[in-house]
Amino acid sequence: MTTSPRVLYHVVCAALPALAAADFAAEARQDGWDVCVVTTPRAAAWLDLPALAAVTGHPVRTDYKLPGQPDVLPPPAAFAVVPATFNTINKWAAGIADTLVLGLLTEALGLGLPVVAAPCLAEAQAAHPAFAASCRTLRGAGVRLLDRWTARDPGLAGGGWEAADTHRVLTELRRAAN
Questions:
Q1: Is the dihedral of CA 24, 25, 27, 31 positive or negative?
Q2: Which residues on neighbouring strands pair with residue 61, listed in sequence order?
Q3: Positive or negative CA dihedral for 93, 49, 176, 151?
Q4: How many CB atoms lie under 10 A from the CB of residue 60?
Q5: What 3-state DSSP class applies to 149?
């Protein structure tokens, strides 16, 4: 996989901030990124994929392509995993690539691409020893993991995700990409 300048893969996992994926993608586009959305299968069930494609100008990917099919997305220059779930963080750190999201994220580490992840998980999950070990592994591989984030108000459409959260991710992406 070769990189293209300013192509951001916005990886969306199934946690409440996923409901603000279109807003994040729109802000990232305003920040100069050509955004491509890739979701976990569960997150795809939560989202309006045609609406996300309309925001980004690219189809939303949720699964591996078949052999012989062309890639429909340009190669990434960076990744934003917003939100990053307990399951994705632990499998990613272990090198498990059983979904398109995890395959792309494991390759990103091997290629040395900039990655910013915004973990969103329950307090009980954060207390599990695997989570701390996985965070150490990913940070050691160069991933910029933001502080763990939990929904401030689950009744909000974006699970409490605010413009300040998007700003923080984009700021970290600018730092990581330079």
A1: positive
A2: 38
A3: negative
A4: 25
A5: strand
The model carries a pTM of 0.91
| Cα 85 from Cα 20, distance rounded (Å) | 15
Write the pLDDT tens digit of every residue in 30-54: 999 999 999 999 999 999 999 999 9
Residues forming beta bridges with residue 121, ordered by sequence position:
none
Hey, what are 167's tokens?
A: 């700003």
Cα dist. 4→73, 106, 113, 175 in Å?
11, 18, 11, 17
55 band by pLDDT with thresholds 50, 70 and 90: very high
The mean per-residue pLDDT over the stretch 111-124 comes to: 91
DSSP string, 15-57: SGGGGGHHHHHHHHHHTT-EEEEEE-HHHHHHS-HHHHHHHHS
